[in-house]
Amino acid sequence: MASLSTREDRCGRWVFSISEFVMNKATKRVQMEMPEAAFERLAWLKDKTEAASYAEVTKNAYRLYAKLITLAESGEELYRKDANGNLTRLELFV
Fold it and tell me: What pTM value is reported for the model?
């Protein structure tokens, strides 16, 4: 179960804290500050993915990023296919 608290700091950045408890054992607590635009992207992702919480969006993003790094380190490449069938190699930030 995740609990989330959010607030806007005096510079207009969103600050949020996530606490998670798994089987009654506390895990690590993360606090982040981000500009309004980044928080809006996070909220958009939460809505689009129907995630239950910002913590769920964040954990899924970390899992995806870790998988992409693992693939890149093993020499694999990622491509995007457009509507016309053209392939474009995607650059990974590794």
Answer: 0.63
